[in-house]
Design a protein that fits this description.
By secondary structure, this protein is α+β, with helices and mostly antiparallel strands. It is built from two helices and four strands. Helix content is about 35%, strand content about 30%.
Length: about 80
């Protein structure tokens, strides 16, 4: 049985820049960095970049999920640093 689902990459920028790669509705990969270029380079150098069907900086529901994940990670980093 072949379970080939669509992979979507979503770019979000804030205190931390990230690319979230979703398979269907599930987060499969996460790339984090300080700058957009740093994250894009990580993504392009990964094997998953060749498997992404759609790259978007505004993919509604998936963008919201990615932003939420990045926000929570940023909060944890701030707690550790303080």
């Amino acid at each position: 049985m072949n379970k080939k689902e669509r992979r979507t990459a979503v770019l979000v920028e804030g205190k931390i820049t990230a690319i979230c790669v979703f398979r269907g509705q599930f987060l499969e990969h996460l790339f984090l960095g300080k700058t957009k270029n740093e994250v894009l380079l990580q993504f392009k150098n990964s094997s998953v970049s060749k498997e992404v069907n759609d790259f978007s900086s505004s993919s509604s529901d998936l963008e919201e999920v990615c932003r939420f994940i990045v926000e929570k990670i940023s909060q944890k980093i701030n707690k550790v640093n303080s």
